[in-house]
Every structure is written in C-alpha cells, then in structure tokens.
Design goal:
Strand order of the largest sheet: 2-1-8-7-12-5
Number of helices: 6
Radius of gyration: 31 Å
Helix content: 10-25%
Largest sheet: 6 strands, mixed
Shape: elongated
Distance between the termini: 112 Å
Length: 429
C-alpha cells in the first residue's frame, strides 16, 4: 500500500504538455508586454534626449548670434563715421599674410562669399534654396573708445600717425596685443579703402604703467606685434603713408570680431567644413583659413552642432528718422542683394546705413533616429508641413510681408525652429 502511494506521487510530479504550453504562452505574452514597454520607453527617451539636445544647441546658437549681431558696428558705427566707413573696401594682413581681400576662395560653406569685402556691420549672403541656407557676415570692434574717430594733423608716414590726440589708443609692452586700428579716408565716387593696422608695442603712452607715461600726445607709433600682428605698411596696394590729412583713425580694440557664419558639414574631428549641413561654422576674417588645424585654431571652426539650416532677413529704416523709426522687413535679395551691398560704392554705403535690425531663423535637426510611424513620410515636428509629394518644409518669418519657405528632408529625425529678432544697436544709436 505504501509502495502504491509512492508510485502515485511519482506519477503526479512534473507538468503536463498542456500546462507547459500554457506557461509558454503566458511567458510569451509577458515578454511581448515587457518588450513593448521597453520599446516605448526607449522611444520616449530618444525623443526627450533629441528634443533636449537640439533645444540646448538652438538656444546656445541663437544667444551667441544675438550677442554678436547686437554689437555689429561697434568702434566705427557712429553716425559721424558712417559715410567714411560703411562699405569701404577692407585691406588687412596678419603676420605678413594678406587676408583681405582674400587671396583664395573662402573654404566651404563660405565659398559663395566674395573674396573682397567692405567694412559692414552685417550683410546676408543669400543661399537661395540651398540646404544650408544663408551666410551672415558681421564686423565689430571691441575697444569701446574712439567711436567718433580721431582726425589727422599731418600726412602719416609708414610707421607713425600724426593725430589730434592719441589718448584713445593703447599699447602692450608685455607681449600682449596692442590696439588694432582702422584707417579710413574721405570717399570720392566710390568708398576709399580702409586699412587695418596696429599700434606698436613701443608706443609712448603705456596704460599699464603707474602713472601712465605721456611722452608724446600727438604721435601714434605703428609697428609689428607678437602674434597676431596686423601691422603692414602696404596691403594690396593701399599704403599707410598714402592717407591724406582728411583721413580718420578708429580704435577697434584688441579683439575685434570680424566673422562669417554659415551651415555646413563637419568631419569626425569637427574641424573641417564641407558642403552639406548640420553644423553651424564660424569663419574669422582676421585670420588665415586653416580648416585642417587643431580644434583650438581651426578656421572655420565649429560654432554649434545640430543646425540644419540658417536663414536671415533685414530690418531696414528707409526714412532715416531715428526718432520715428519704422522697420520694414526685406529679404537679402533684390535691392538688398549681397552683391549690391558689397561692391564698395557710395550707393552700397547708403544702403548699409539703413539696416537697423536682423531676423535670424535656425532650423535644428536631432541626431538620434526614431521609429517612423507607418504611412508617414517622416517624423512630425512643430511647424513642419508635409506635402502630397512627400516633401517637407517650414514657413519662416511668417510675421513679415515676405515669409521664407525652407525645405527639409523627410526623415526619422526631429526638427525644431528658433527665430529671433536682433536690433543693430550701434546703428540705432
């Protein structure tokens, strides 16, 4: 009897086939449920991460562009200087190498910019329907001095200027950078050339001495500086000694910002610009091009990642009455096309003086791909419109009379648009 009980228990051990199949089905359902939760969680994570990343990149890029463009014209933008400086063809050399006019075509994505550039607070080179959008050129000094310009007393020599006063200029005798200056002459039929030069470290007035040495109050010595050195007696046929007594000299400070911004593609190292998109690059017009340099000295250099395209337009004040300024928004084409603003004529100078603000739109694209919903050509993004032919586009500057349509590639990546309006405060003042 005991043996029968043991045999009965032995027969009852384990699972039947039906029980096993039920267990497998339950396990499969649970696994599918867990997979669905994980997939959904991963999707939300990618969406959140992507949106946060492009949000931070867009906010940073918009802030930096705002800061740069607001300062456009600093050091030379005063009303009394505008007729002399706005639109004057620039001549500059650094460390003995001519940089303006550029001796070569600017590297991508700046290849469409003319090699000869005039002095201008801001100019937009239209990219048309190109994927990367427009190029923005901006120039500003950093001195905060000599806004009204200092007049010449006598004809200059190659190494010194005879001025009404030299109190607005500084030299560095400690191996640093002395003030960078701009020489501007009275215009004739076209704007006379503007030459960038530099105060000599041997200049008699030294503000880093206590008390300052005031050996000569009317002679400004020019000469070579430790890298970077912007002193060159003659650049592209324009000589310091060739300026007349009707010229003025303006202080651009020790770190003037003469830059261009455009969207291109980056190599793995993030240093070389090429045709394409997703990287906003900055090009320093006061240094030589060196796209293959180390990250710290590359030119162009990476300004912000994740930027798919950049578009811009001008706010102009055509009535010339600062007290009742009415801004009209116009695209960088037609009467305000870059070739008309950059030709060095009196007409271009007049047009440049009417630009008092800029609108900038940045289209950011995420880097993390997402699962595309069935039946859709791409991921939905705020403001993105899909046409019946599968193309996608944003409408930018919809609050102006001439909105801009920017095409984007339908994709499993998300987009975000940042629009900002930036006053050119030096021109408004």
């Amino acid at each position: 009897m005991q043996n029968n009980k043991l045999q009965h228990k032995k027969n009852q051990s384990g699972l039947s086939l039906i029980e096993l199949m039920v267990a497998l089905i339950i396990g499969l359902i649970v696994s599918l449920a867990i997979y669905g939760v994980m997939a959904s969680s991963e999707g939300r994570k990618r969406t959140t991460t992507s949106v946060n990343d492009i949000g931070q990149s867009g906010a940073y890029a918009a802030y930096q562009l705002d800061k740069t463009l607001r300062s456009a014209g600093s050091g030379y933008g005063a009303t009394s200087n505008a007729a002399l400086t706005y639109g004057c063809p620039l001549r500059a050399a650094v460390n003995g190498t001519q940089i303006l006019p550029s001796l070569t075509v600017f590297p991508a994505p700046f290849a469409a910019v003319p090699q000869a550039l005039p002095l201008t607070p801001v100019v937009i080179v239209s990219g048309g329907a190109g994927a990367g959008g427009d190029v923005i050129i901006t120039m500003a000094g950093s001195g905060g001095l000599s806004e009204s310009g200092t007049r010449f007393q006598n004809v200059p020599s190659a190494t010194q200027l005879s001025l009404e006063s030299v109190s607005a200029f500084r030299a560095s005798d400690t191996g640093g950078t002395s003030d960078i200056i701009l020489l501007a002459n009275q215009p004739a039929a076209n704007q006379a050339n503007c030459l960038i030069s530099q105060v000599s470290p041997a200049f008699a007035i030294r503000y880093n001495q206590a008390p300052p040495v005031l050996a000569d109050t009317s002679t400004l010595a020019l000469g070579a500086n430790v890298n970077p050195n912007y002193y060159q007696p003659t650049v592209n046929g324009t000589a310091i000694a060739g300026y007349s007594t009707s010229a003025v000299v303006l202080n651009l400070g020790q770190n003037p910002n003469f830059s261009m911004f455009a969207v291109g593609a980056s190599t793995a190292g993030g240093t070389k610009a090429a045709a394409g998109n997703n990287t906003l690059f900055k090009y320093d017009l006061l240094n030589v091009a060196d796209a293959a340099a180390a990250n710290a000295s590359a030119n162009p250099s990476v300004f912000s990642d994740g930027v798919y395209a950049m578009r811009a337009m001008y706010g102009v004040d055509n009535d010339g009455n600062a007290a009742t300024t009415t801004i009209n928004w116009v695209p960088p084409t037609g009467a305000y096309a870059a070739n008309l603003l950059l030709d060095g004529s009196i007409a271009s100078s007049t047009l440049l003086q009417t630009i008092v603000a800029v609108k900038v739109a940045l289209i950011l694209q995420s880097s993390l791909p997402e699962i595309m919903p069935a039946g859709q050509p791409g991921i939905a993004s705020p403001g993105l419109t899909y046409a019946n032919d599968g193309t996608a586009s944003f409408t930018l500057f919809s609050d102006t009379p001439t909105p801009v349509t920017q095409m984007v590639a339908p994709t499993n990546l998300r987009y975000r648009v940042f629009e900002t309006t930036i006053p050119i405060r030096n021109r408004l003042l």
